[in-house]
Design a protein that fits this description.
heterodimer; A: 221 residues; alpha/beta; Glutaconate Coenzyme A-transferase; 3-stranded mixed sheet; B: 222 residues; 8-stranded parallel sheet; 3-stranded antiparallel sheet; 6 helices; globular
């Protein structure tokens, strides 16, 4: 059964609440790459008592927060080409080394946005497949398969109410079977060999409702 | 005596032939050798293949080069940006060929060329449209795609400091593609903000060894 309406009692997570929920799962000492867009917000919610090393694909490890206005150094930017800073202990390296860190399994977590995630962990986040769209992939395919764990952060439904959690991705893939956990505005869901397991849900939502909205089978963790 | 310091951008770019494959450093604006690109436009070489992470922004630098119509093909990972209208227009009109490469494969293909590697198997892109038509192999239970090196005739890179042997250091994330492009091209041309005497660059911290660089031009910060 698929339903497309969300009960008014359901308290959806806003973007910052989604980011805070992801941040809760990033342990002290982790090396993390945050994708462009929604995942970037996770940096603002990392607890101050944890030391987390942020990696950026353009050659920086130990990335710090945005500089104060007027203090931007345009030789020091992140993957989204925004000005950032470097923490003490941080360092710079060239592009091939940066992607070797990723592909070589040296990053603990990668957090990415998505158009679609399939129940088997397939990810689609780079191309809608529209014939007139100009394709651009950047580091998405390397990030998807490189980190020890790939987390996805996305709205549960598209603007027109379709589930972004799907049986099979209909958009071109970014990576095969690479996603381990999904954080949406409605729930946190693990992808396991035994299927989708719901780790938590927002207040006011039942498992039956979540499953109805998603249109794919899932069980409580 | 070895002296790779050239007196001007024009002198440093002399002899670039039509039909060349040219690597251009930079990730967005950081490390983009804007003066060398302007020099290439003035130099006039055409029928070019350009290798860069992006496909130009607004109407300056790489976008201005594309606008001249002298670029036959671009190899890049992320052409589409909010202000990539020059590329977008050429692509939609069928006036430029695009080879889209995942960013890590782009970097490793450039690195492989400079390191003398014939081809390599990488997990990136497996099962996606960007691996279609490429050889695939299972190694220790994991699937990989065969990727070929990207060689170039010329590399245009922006560094921070250099000496007359061609040793280079970079500044922060402006390093990005510079070191690997310098190694992958037959003729590597670097702009630096400062030329220093031999021995002034800390030998422990030289990032690009001079043997990878043929020409250096000094463009002091204004």
């Amino acid at each position: 059964m698929t339903t497309t309406t969300i009960s008014p009692n359901v308290k959806k997570r806003n973007r910052n609440e989604m980011a805070a929920r992801v941040a809760r799962d990033i342990p002290d000492g982790a090396v993390v790459n945050l994708g462009i867009g929604l995942p970037t917000l996770v940096a603002n919610h990392l607890p101050s008592d944890r030391e987390v090393l942020l990696h950026s694909e353009n050659g920086v490890l130990g990335m710090g927060p945005a500089p104060a206005e007027g203090q931007e150094d345009w030789d020091l930017i992140n993957a989204g080409k925004q000005a950032v800073t470097l923490l003490d202990g941080g360092s710079y390296f060239h592009h091939a080394d940066s992607f070797a860190m990723m592909r070589g399994g040296h990053l603990d977590y990668c957090v990415l946005g998505a158009f679609q995630v399939a129940v088997n962990g397939d990810l689609a986040n780079w191309h809608t497949g529209a014939p007139d769209a100009i394709p651009a992939v950047g580091g998405a395919m390397d990030l998807a398969i490189g980190a020890k764990k790939t987390f996805v952060m996305m709205e549960h439904l598209t603007k027109s109410g379709e589930s972004k959690l799907v049986e099979r991705c209909t958009y071109p893939l970014t990576g095969v079977g690479c996603v381990s956990r999904i954080y949406t505005d409605l729930a946190t869901i693990d992808i396991t060999p035994q299927g989708l397991k719901v780790v938590d849900m927002v207040e006011g939502l039942t498992l039956a409702e979540l499953q109805g909205l998603s249109g794919v089978p899932m069980q409580a963790a | 005596m070895i002296n790779k310091i050239f007196p001007s951008v024009e002198a440093a770019l002399a002899g670039i032939a039509d039909g060349s494959t040219i690597m251009i450093g930079g990730f967005g604006g950081a490390g983009q050798p804007a003066e060398l690109i302007d020099g290439l436009i003035a130099q006039g070489a055409k029928d070019l293949v350009i290798v860069n992470n992006n496909a130009g922004n607004a109407d300056y630098g790489l976008a201005a080069l594309l606008k001249t119509g002298r670029v036959r093909k671009i190899i890049c990972s992320f052409p589409r940006q909010a202000d990539s209208h020059v590329f977008d227009g050429l692509y939609r009109a069928g006036k430029i060929e695009l080879e889209l490469v995942p960013q890590g494969n782009l970097a490793e293909r450039i690195r492989a060329a400079g390191a003398g590697i014939g081809a390599f198997f990488t997990p990136t892109g497996y099962g996606t449209p960007l691996a279609e038509g490429k050889e695939q192999r299972e190694i220790d239970g994991k699937m990989y795609v065969l990727e070929m090196p990207i060689h170039a005739d010329v590399a245009l890179i922006k560094a921070e400091r250099g000496d007359r042997w061609g040793n280079l250091t970079y500044r922060k994330t402006a390093r990005n593609f510079g070191p690997i492009m310098a190694a992958a091209a037959k003729l590597s041309i670097a702009s630096v903000h400062e030329v220093v005497p031999l021995g002034d660059l800390d030998p422990e911290a030289v990032v690009t060894q001079g043997l990878y660089v043929q020409r250096v031009v000094c463009l002091p910060r204004t």
